[in-house]
Amino acid sequence: DGEVHINELKNGNAEMFWNPTGEVRRQRLKRHIVLFEEQTDFESERLWQHVTSAINKGDQHKATQEKFVLEEEQRNGARERRENGTEWKPLLFRHDATTNEWHYKYEDLRPWDPLNDIAQFEKNGILQTMERHLSTKMSNHKTTCINNQITRHKRSATDCRRRKTSDQPSNHSQNTESSCSTPESVQELSDDDGKYLGFESLCAQCGKEMNHLKEIHSAVLSLQKAQQDIHR
C-alpha cells in the first residue's frame, strides 16, 4: 500500500516504481474477511499469525523459525497418516494428476464485473460472488408474463371484432358488440397500463423471485452495517 522505489546500487539513483494514489485505492475491490475470532485453527490468518507478526516487526529470523515450526508439524502429520494408512481428503482443493498441481475447487478467475457483481465473500472456505443477474432475470420474466397477457388480450379483441363483422342479424350484431368491452387496439403497455387492464398479479415464480431479492437486499444491508461497525 506504500510507495515502491527501484534503487540503482551502482550510482545510488532511486526511481519511483509504484505509487498507490488515492484514485487507485478508490478503484479497489473492497475486501471482506472472516473475523479473526471466528476463524478455525487451520485458516491462514490464524495459522500463520506468528509468522506474520514477525514479518511486520521486521524480524526475519523469528519469521523463519515460526515458518519452520508450522512446516515441521505438517510433515509429522503426513508421516503419521502414512504409517496409519489414513487417506488425506482435502475439502477445498483438488489434485491435477496431469500437472501434479493442487487447485482450489471453487476458484473464480473471471474478471470482476462492476455492472453485475455486488460483493464477493467467503463462507466455510468457499468463495462466492453475489450477483445482480437474479434481478435482471426476474425483470425479464415479469416482462414475458405481461407480454403473454397482452397477447391474450389482443387475441380476445380480434375475436370480438370478427364476431362484430360476421354475417349475422343486425340486432344480434348489436348484442355482440355491446358484450365486447375490450379496446380494439392495444399498444405497448407500461406496468401501470397492465394494472389498468387487470394484470396486477403476475405468476408465482415472479413473486417467489421478488421475495428472494428482498432477502438478498436485507443480507447486503446487514453486511454493510457490519462492515461499518468493524471500521468504527
In short:
With 232 residues, the protein is α+β, with helices and mostly antiparallel strands. 51% of the residues lie in helices and 13% in strands.
Describe it.
- This protein has a domain at 90-134.
- 51% of the residues lie in helices and 13% in strands.
- The protein contains 8 helices and 6 strands, in the order E-E-H-H-H-H-E-E-E-E-H-H-H-H.
- It has helices spanning 22-26, 44-47, 49-56, 60-84, 133-165, 170-179, 191-196, 204-231, and strands spanning 4-7, 14-18, 93-96, 101-104, 117-123, 126-131.
- The strands form 3 sheets. It has a two-stranded antiparallel ribbon. Strands 3-4 form a two-stranded antiparallel ribbon.
- Mean pLDDT is 76; it is low at 169-201.
Major sheet description: 2 strands, antiparallel
Annotation, overall tally of beta strands:
6
Q: Low-confidence spans: pLDDT under 50, at least 5 residues?
A: 169-201
Helix content: 40-55%
Averaged pLDDT: 76
Q: Rg to the nearest angstrom?
A: 32 Å
Give the N-to-C terminal Cα separation.
21 Å
Q: What is the number of helical segments per DSSP (H or I, 4+ residues)?
A: 8
Category from helices, strands and their pairing: alpha+beta
- Estimate the global geometry from the Cα principal axes: extended
Proportion of beta-strand residues: 5-15%
Order of helices and strands: EEHHHHEEEEHHHH
Q: Enumerate the strands of the largest sheet in spatial order, edge to edge or round the barrel.
A: 1-2
Pfam family, one: Oxysterol_BP
GO molecular function: lipid binding
Organism: Centropus unirufus
Protein name: OSBL5 protein
